[in-house]
Amino acid sequence: MTMTADCYICSRDAVLDTLPPRERIASDGLWRVAHAFDAALPGWLLLLPRRHVTSIAELTDSEALALGAWQVGLSRALQDVTGCEKTYVAQFAEAEGFSHVHFHIIPRPAGLGRDLRGPRIFRLLGAAGHERVSDEQMDEIAIALANRLGG
Fold first, then answer.
1. Which of 67, 73, 95, 136 is deepest in the core (most CB within 10 A)?
2. Closest CA to 32 of 133, 142, 135, 109
3. Which domains does the chain have, with CATH numbers?
4. Which pTM was predicted?
């Protein structure tokens, strides 16, 4: 597996077995699922390739094929675990230190205000410490999702 030493996502993947449940909800040889660490929305997931890539075009055929199954499976699991009405899927990989391709799988609760729907939901990412989902709640969600996913 190709990893880059100065990449946050690669550095976490390198120590996968020691990570808390929120950072290793599920994984296979190609992808890993983690809860976003700075979200104000419970269940905001990140789908991360296990090797370092900075563009979707760099995904192998196997990674691309598995991507769709992961996105649908995670969306179904989020509906079951969080009761969300739907999920949003987005990919940018533009933030400083986070150029490693990653997909946001975001639960959109039924009661979410219109001011936070669509791309405005990203206002709930990068939350201040006291607004973030707690480590304990992320771990509870992670364990429930892992059980739902069969892992």
1. 67
2. 142
3. 8-149 (3.30.428.10)
4. 0.93
